[in-house]
Amino acid sequence: KEGGDDDDGRLTWAWRRVLSRHPTPEEQTVLAGLLTRHRGEFTADPASARGLLGVGQRPADPALDPSELAAWTSVARAILNLAHSDDLIMLKRKQPAPEITGALRKR
Q1: What's the start-to-end Cα distance of the chain, in Å?
Q2: Of 69, 104, 68, 53, nearest to 83 (Cα)?
Q3: Longest dimension (CA), the chain
Q4: CB-hemisphere CA count at 13 Å for 94?
């Protein structure tokens, strides 16, 4: 619902919200590919989408398409995991490590 009317705007919004910077063009391409792949998977297997959305403290909004919401949930998890990796690296080194975090993002 937030971040704009199109996928690129929403992906950028999510990335900036979590990582406090804009995604690089390469990162944006990877995110868009992840979203497309998960949309296809959850559209082909709606039960899997419902299963994913059945986990958590609150029920999913019934007004939203389960396959779409599940795809975005997967993308959000990927972004949050990346942020967690950045945090762990910075804690271990006690300083920002852009050369390492950049290498992790390319994996």
Answers
A1: 29
A2: 104
A3: 45
A4: 0
H helix or E strand, kind and range, residue 75:
helix 66-93
Alpha helices by DSSP H, listed for the chain, are 7-19, 25-44, 46-53, 66-93, 98-105
Task: State the sign of the Cα–Cα–Cα–Cα dihedral 41, 45, 51, 54.
Answer: positive
Say which DSSP state 63 is in. T
**83 vs 8: CA distance, rounded Å:** 19
Tens-place pLDDT, residues 43-85: 999 999 999 999 888 899 999 999 999 999 999 999 998 876 6
Taking the complete model, does pTM exceed 0.90, yes or no?
A: no
| Token digits of residue 6 | 């199109």
Of 7, 63, 66, nearest to 36 (Cα)?
A: 7
Amino acid found at 31: L
